[in-house]
Amino acid sequence: MTKKVPVYVISGFLGSGKTTVLLNMLEHFKQQKKIPGIILNELGDENVEDHLFKGEKIVELLNGCICCTIQEDLKTTLDQYIGQEIDVLIIEGTGVANPLEIKEVLLTPAYMQHFELQSMISLVDASHYLEYQSFFSSSKEIRGLLKEQVTSAHLLVLNKMDLISEKELIKVESKLADQLEDHVPVYRTSFGAVPLEILLEKRMHVVEVEEEGAGEIHHDGEHHHHHHHIEAVKINMIEPINTVVLESELKKLSKQVIRSKGIVLLEETPGLYEFQYAASTLVLNKIEDSENKEYKPSIILIGKEIDEKKVAKFREALK
Ligand SMILES: Nc1nc2c(ncn2[C@@H]2O[C@H](COP(=O)(O)OP(=O)(O)OP(=O)(O)O)[C@@H](O)[C@H]2O)c(=O)[nH]1
Questions:
Q1: For 249-266, how does the pLDDT look when each residue is reduced to its tens digit (9 = 90+)?
Q2: Domain map of the chain by residue range?
Q3: pLDDT tens digits for range 142-161
Q4: Which SUPFAM superfamilies match (predicted)?
Q5: Which listed residue, of 89, 118, 127, 305, carries a Cα 20 to 30 Å from 251's Cα?
Q6: What is the distance in A from the centroid of ligand 1 to the CA of 51?
């Protein structure tokens, strides 16, 4: 199997310091003689920051906007990177992009074979956070987006500390604490100066369940996994499954699994099917040209603190 490319996603509102952090990361990779790939998702039709990335492998998605999905464009862009000689991929969302859309695409069976999400890094401009949050000075849409940029983070970088007072900082942090989960670290800094070992730590934990040895769960090379919050499980499944059983078993996991998707063989009919499960509803679609593509049947469970025993039970029930 080819080595998976580690991926970092940098998100944060307009002007929060994403590009500053990205440039710090690039400098580090260059020193290490690693080849980074970059996906920039800029607003508008022209990227004004082109000059900052001379000589890098870079692909831009130029239509990022608050109301349009970027998922199809992102998939096309990721396809261009498959098989390319890159050691790491950094995706910078637009200030108004929804980072969960990017995460969703990366947690798709086809892309999980090639890419491995390491961390969702969110930047917050400490000097504008309260203003953006305030009911009078920002729209509901913007407040929703800011919240998502915070709640989706594995690492929250509170940037532009040089511009705020201690008093303001207390208010900002207490506001953030309402939205952040307890285990998400907050790093205070200015000009995106986060130590690389903190920035690059692998924080997204996916476990993979192999076909052989049902119930045996292989962690992603981490030894101290018990302290981690497992967010996704990939179950490699070759045998055909029953759709009614699949739906009822997913529902049984409703406390842990918010979302599921995958590519499966069905007992009732031949061919490969892609399925999506969200809001307790299962939707299946036949993959038309599956013979021509390299699809491996697998099921991905996405949620919070997924329990290994329950996953093993789920796996057994589908057999
Ligand atoms: N005073 C101050 N300025 C900063 C800091 N970090 C970044 N800046 C400046 O803020 C501006 C925006 O920073 P960027 O890194 O371009 O922010 P961004 O999130 O990529 O912005 P968009 O591309 O608009 O989404 C730049 O002029 C930076 O030099 C900081 O900690 N303090």
A1: 999 998 888 889 899 999
A2: 5-199, 206-318
A3: 778 888 889 999 999 999 99
A4: Hypothetical protein YjiA, C-terminal domain, P-loop containing nucleoside triphosphate hydrolases
A5: 118
A6: 16
Ligand 1 pocket residue status of 297, Cβ below 6 Å: no
Gyration radius from the chain CA atoms: 20
User: The domain 5-199 belongs to what CATH superfamily?
Assistant: P-loop containing nucleotide triphosphate hydrolases (3.40.50.300)
- 192 Cβ closer than 6 Å to some ligand 1 atom: yes
Which amino acid would we find at residue 131? E
Residue whose CA is closest, atom 5 of ligand 1?
Answer: 191
Asked if residue 109 lies in contact with residue 26, where contact means CB atoms within 8 angstroms, the answer is: no
ipTM over 0.85: yes
| Probe residue for ligand 1, chosen from 19, 48, 149 as the CB with the greatest number of ligand atoms within 8 Å | 19
Number of Cβ within a 10 Å radius of residue 105: 22
- The whole-angstrom separation of Cα 172 and Cα 52 is 31
Calpha distance 261→32 (Å, rounded)? 36
pTM of the model: 0.81
Shortest-distance atom of ligand 1 to CA 190: 31
CATH topology of domain 206-318: Hypothetical Protein Yjia; Chain: A;domain 2 (3.30.1220)
Report residue 296 as tokens.
Answer: 């491996």
What is the pLDDT, as a whole number, of residue 283? 92
* Helix and strand totals (H; E) in the chain: 10, 14
**pLDDT tens digits, 272-294:** 999 999 888 899 999 887 666 67
**Coil/strand/helix, residue 181:** coil
Each residue of 181-215: b (16+ CB within 10 Å) or e?
eeebebebbeebebeeeebbebbbbbbbbeeeeee
- 287 alpha carbon – ligand 1 mean position (Å): 44
Note the Cα 33 to chain centre separation in Å. Answer: 26
